[in-house]
Structures are given as C-alpha cells and as structure tokens.
C-alpha cells in the first residue's frame, strides 16, 4: 500500500548562501495492508522528514513514494489533495483547525468531505469523541481553547473518522493518560484489522512494542559525511 524506493532528499538553505544539506539517501520502505511500521532512529535522523515526504509536504529530490496508485514524489497538488481526502490520513502531533468551528464538526469534516450524509458523519464523530473521553459539553465549542491533551484527542478522533487505507501517525500516544492511551492503541489495532497500512513515529516504547509489526531505523538512510565509512 505504501512503497518507497530509492528516495533522496536534501534541503537548500536559501537564507544561508543556498547551502545544500543532504538528509536522506536511498530510502526504501514497504508497508503492506494491515501492517504498522515504526520509524526509529536518533533525533535528527530523518523520521519526520520521511513522514512529511509521504504526506506530500516535502518534495523529494529523487525516488518513488507510492501510496495506493499515486507516486506522491511526482504528483500534482490536485492529486495530493485527492489522496489526502480519500486514501491517506495523518494524525499530526498538534491540532490545526479553523477557529470557531465546533469540535463535532472538526471531527466529522473528513467524512463530510467524502459526501457522507451529515447524520452518519456526526454519529461517527460522537462515537469517537465519547470513546476518547471528550465531555459532551465541549462538542459544540471550538477546540482552540482546549487543553493540550484534549486537542490531541480531538486530532486523533478526526484522523480516525474515515477508514483511510493508509495512515501516518506522529506520536499518537504522547502526553495521553493511561486510559486514553489504551483507546488510541485500540483504534490503531482496529485500523490494522480492517487492512490499513500504517507508518508511525512512537517514542512511547511500550506502545511501539504492542502495536507495531516491525521497526525501520531511518539512520540507514542518513547520508554519510564525506570521508566517513558506512
Ligand atoms: N525544513 C527544514 N530545513 C532544513 N533542514 C531540515 C528541515 N527539516 C528537517 N531538516 C533537517 O533534516 C534532518 C532530519 O530532521 P527530522 O526532523 O526529520 O529528524 P527526526 O528524526 O524526526 O528528529 P526528532 O526525533 O528530533 O523529531 C535534521 O538534520 C534537520 O535539521
């Protein structure tokens, strides 16, 4: 479902004399339907960069990033928007929403964008908010004023509203209490069971061990400085 072949990435620092910093070379990754793969490696190794390239935010220098039928590395903006609507979900660490949109709507939006009838989309949103212990009195308020943990749970509810065939998870259990952490792990297990291909960053080692089928250390894709043997 997600296939990465010979992917390379460098950053050009335009404000620093256009210095070119190579950050990834020859990256390979295959994630089958129903599989959850954890990206590991020390801070700065390139985990977030790889996730952002799969999501289509960072351009690849070369290589292939196939998500379903689309090569994200060569895709147009229109194709990436369609991919994000239909196929690829992303639970980022922080919630970014338009102010004044009620929480229930924020969670239902991915389903509404796909043409799901409003009552059905709201029912799914309510179910997720309830499972993630967001009190009902907050559902008609914008989540912009919610606590960090509440915002993270709204973000997770939104990310799991539509059964995307592929999912990117950035620290989905960070800063959650034990009960909510267990709910999130159940949601991930259910997504795997219905065949979602998942790539995630999990600093929570116990969560990683429980939910991930394998780990891929992105350090293997970090370019070696000149003169350093691999
Ligand atoms: N927008 C950017 N511009 C320039 N360099 C960047 C940019 N984003 C990332 N980098 C560089 O790419 C390398 C990989 O960073 P990345 O954030 O992917 O690492 P990470 O493994 O996710 O680290 P952490 O665990 O600390 O989040 C780092 O050297 C970083 O400085």
Automatic annotation (TrEMBL):
SUPFAM superfamilies the UniProt entry points to: P-loop containing nucleoside triphosphate hydrolases (SSF52540)
One example GO MF annotation: lyase activity
Keyword field contains rRNA processing: no
InterPro entries xref list: AAA+_ATPase (IPR003593), ABC_transporter-like_ATP-bd (IPR003439), ABC_transporter-like_CS (IPR017871), CP_lyase_PhnL (IPR012701), P-loop_NTPase (IPR027417)
Residues covered by the ABC transporter domain: 2-228
Keywords annotated in UniProt: ATP-binding, Lyase, Nucleotide-binding
Similarity comment: Belongs to the ABC transporter superfamily.
Name recorded for this polypeptide: Phosphonate C-P lyase system protein PhnL
Protein species of origin: Thioclava arctica
């Amino acid at each position: 479902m997600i296939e990465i072949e010979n992917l390379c990435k460098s950053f050009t620092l335009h404000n620093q004399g256009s210095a070119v910093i190579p950050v990834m070379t020859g990256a390979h990754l295959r994630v089958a339907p129903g599989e959850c793969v954890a990206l590991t490696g020390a801070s700065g190794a390139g985990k977030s960069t790889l996730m952002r390239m799969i999501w289509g935010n960072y351009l690849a220098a070369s290589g292939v990033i196939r998500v379903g039928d689309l090569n994200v590395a060569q895709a147009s903006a229109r194709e990436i928007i369609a991919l994000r609507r239909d196929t690829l979900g992303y639970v980022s660490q922080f919630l970014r929403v338009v102010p004044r949109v009620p929480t229930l709507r924020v969670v239902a939006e991915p389903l509404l964008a796909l043409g799901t009838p409003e009552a059905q989309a709201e029912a799914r949103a309510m179910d997720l908010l309830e499972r993630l212990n967001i009190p009902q009195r907050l559902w008609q308020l914008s989540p912009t004023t919610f606590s960090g943990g509440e915002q993270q749970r709204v973000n997770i509810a939104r990310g799991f509203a539509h059964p995307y065939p592929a999912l990117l998870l950035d620290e989905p259990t960070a800063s959650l209490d034990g009960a909510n952490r267990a709910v999130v792990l159940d949601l991930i297990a259910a997504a795997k069971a219905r065949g979602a291909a998942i790539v995630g960053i999990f600093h929570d080692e116990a969560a990683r061990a429980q939910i991930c089928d394998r780990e891929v250390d992105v350090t293997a894709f970090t370019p070696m400085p000149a003169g350093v043997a691999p």
